[in-house]
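Can't paste images in this forum, so I'm doing it all in text. The chain is below; anyone willing to post the predicted structure tokens underneath?
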Amino acid sequence: MDQTRIEAGRSLDESHEMSFIDHLEALRWHIIRSAISIVVFATAAFLSKDFLFHDLILGPSRPDFWTYRMFCKFGQWVGNPELCMDKVGFVIQNREMSGQLTMHISTSFIVGIVLAFPYTFWELWRFIKPGLYPHEQANSRGAVFFVSILFILGLLFGYYIAAPLSINFLASYTVDPTIENQIDLQSYLSTLTTMSLSCAFVFELPMIVFFLAKAGLISAEIMRLYRKHAIVVILIIAAIITPPDISSQLIVTIPILLLYELSINIARVVRRNATERLNAELAANKGVS
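Text version of the structure:
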């Protein structure tokens, strides 16, 4: 890492020279604190077994889930009662002796990672930030906040919209009415977590574009030029993380398209601010000369 850049972004009381070993030591403590936060949240989730499984994990498997009730109300409003999901056509079961205990531990760990994500990213940002120039630190102010907000919004969208639609479609689909769907607990949880976390990371698109635009690797013009290609990629992503029905794919595709358009505006603003800063520096240099 460039020592000049490190010292430029560090306060006076931290302006001492850091060796490679010092950087590794600093990174180690950031990782340790992040791991501790994950363990704390995972332990809290493990002790909250009733809420964790009955209300949170198994919520989308019951017809009284919030999403199903909202779809039912929407169906009544538009005069389409078929949108009302008054029953869930599957049964969740466990086939292994230690399956529920293992699932309890692994699920608690996943919830711990999710809940600790904002703090973990903050620790990572604390390690990266001193290596930035002062203007780079100023331009990336609020990064932790916006990354955390987008992650939470994506997680909520995946949990309340994408995951219930996928679970209800896949678990209720039958090739013959005489075949009963008995879903393994592991399969159910895998679908729920995959859908929710996929949406959480997809919603980080604006921040990814922000940092790429800051680095000069992408621009609004390039994103507009390849908009049609991006739409195809978005449709493919939506098809991967949703069941093979048009309504679910559209519900997931629309917010991703909106995020892409938002990212174009973000890249445009970044480019405009960089141009203004460069013009100001040129004007200041001419004034000095």
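The chain has twelve helices and two strands. Strands lie at 91-93, 182-184.
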